[in-house]
Design goal:
With about 325 residues, the chain is of the alpha/beta class. It contains 11 helices and 11 strands. The strands form 2 sheets. The protein has a 6-stranded mixed beta sheet. Bound molecules: guanosine-5'-monophosphate and manganese (II) ion (MN).
């Protein structure tokens, strides 16, 4: 599935018609959400629009994304204006916008740009391509079609989105087309090594220590192929780590030989438990996450459990996972 010309021409008219835009993404934004929000924001700003960018609170950027160009567009929730163009990026459904959901659904013009297979088409225009590795990849192609200029800063944002959502071009969503887009972004000024140093050599010592602690507690069940660990609020406090620093923690579990599904259970500050799931290409965990109230891709998905403890959340998950 590609991008439909008719949808793009509606986006084009909206950009011409409006003089302001708010670009939004999901709660706890990852590299693709941040890169897509800021990259698109910068494109629209170059096209002459007044741009605000946001996601649900906390809006603060994770430390390793502090280098991202365009962060001055980030605006607190109280100051956002929804009367111009409203664009949601990397959000499978409006619920992912947290407290911004109502304002978005009531806005006169909403463009939904995303690559999740379970996108609910909540926009007035929906540009959804599940074959794209990242929302940033869709944005790069759309920019070409719309005649929006991609300068160095925009290339850095979009490249960051693609690198992080493809696990540095190693996940199953990496295609020849992804690598071609990445190559063009490098030609436009994105520097792979600089990005690597910022994002992948940007951990704090406290985070490294927490990661070590969690790896040493991880449980592997050869019968189900599950490798999992629970991270409590107490551990975050004890190690002095912020929740928004833990996006890549799940990757530490994925290097284990013979595992099928890696699971990270995170206790949130409201006591609920958030579950991140990652699988090898032959196991669909997007469906599992959807059955439990969340969603995502075939091999990377998540949900928030309604159960009150880690033990119950683990049992609930095991009940949904079919043994190999
Ligand atoms: P993460 O484990 O990094 O939080 O999420 C992995 C992927 O799962 C995200 O890219 C997102 O697509 C999806 N995801 C995570 N949580 C939710 C959720 O609560 N609802 C939906 N629809 N998708 C989610
Ligand atoms: Mn994404």
């Amino acid at each position: 599935m590609g991008i439909k010309k008719r949808d793009l021409s509606r986006v084009y008219s909206l950009i011409k018609e409006k003089d302001s835009a708010v670009v939004l993404s999901h709660q706890n934004p990852d590299g693709d959400a941040i890169g897509s929000t800021l990259g698109l924001g910068l494109m629209l700003r170059s096209a002459g629009l007044n741009v605000q960018a946001a996601w649900p609170d906390p809006i603060e950027l994770p430390l390793k994304y502090e280098f991202m160009p365009g962060k001055e567009m980030l605006t607190g929730p109280g100051e956002l204006r929804f009367d111009g163009l409203v664009i949601a990026v990397d959000c499978a459904n409006a619920g992912r916008l947290g407290e911004l959901e109502d304002a978005v659904l009531e806005a006169p013009a909403v463009i939904n740009i995303d690559h999740h297979p379970d996108n609910t088409f909540f926009g007035s225009v929906d540009i959804v391509d599940p074959a794209a590795s990242a929302t940033a990849e869709i944005l790069y192609k759309a920019a070409g079609e719309l005649g929006l200029e991609v300068d160095r800063d925009i290339a850095v944002c979009l490249y960051t989105g693609i690198v992080t959502d493809t696990g540095r071009f190693q996940f199953s969503n990496t295609s020849a087309g992804t690598l071609q887009v990445a190559a063009e972004l490098v030609e436009l000024g994105a520097e792979p090594n600089r990005l690597y140093e910022e994002v992948y050599q940007g951990d704090s010592l406290s985070y490294m220590r927490l990661s070590g602690e969690l790896i040493s507690k991880a449980v592997f069940e050869p019968e189900t192929g599950l490798v999992y660990v629970f991270m409590s609020q107490e551990e975050l406090r004890r190690f002095g780590v912020k929740m928004n620093e833990t996006e890549d923690l799940i990757d530490a579990l994925r290097t284990l030989r013979g595992h099928r599904i890696a699971v990270l259970f995170k206790e949130l500050d409201n006591g609920k438990i958030r579950i991140s799931l990652r699988s090898r290409a032959d196991t669909d965990i997007g469906t599992v996450a959807r059955r439990l109230g969340g969603g995502g891709h075939r091999v990377a998905a998540g949900y928030t459990s309604l159960k009150g403890s880690f033990e119950e959340a683990l049992e609930e998950l095991k009940g949904e996972i079919v043994a190999p």
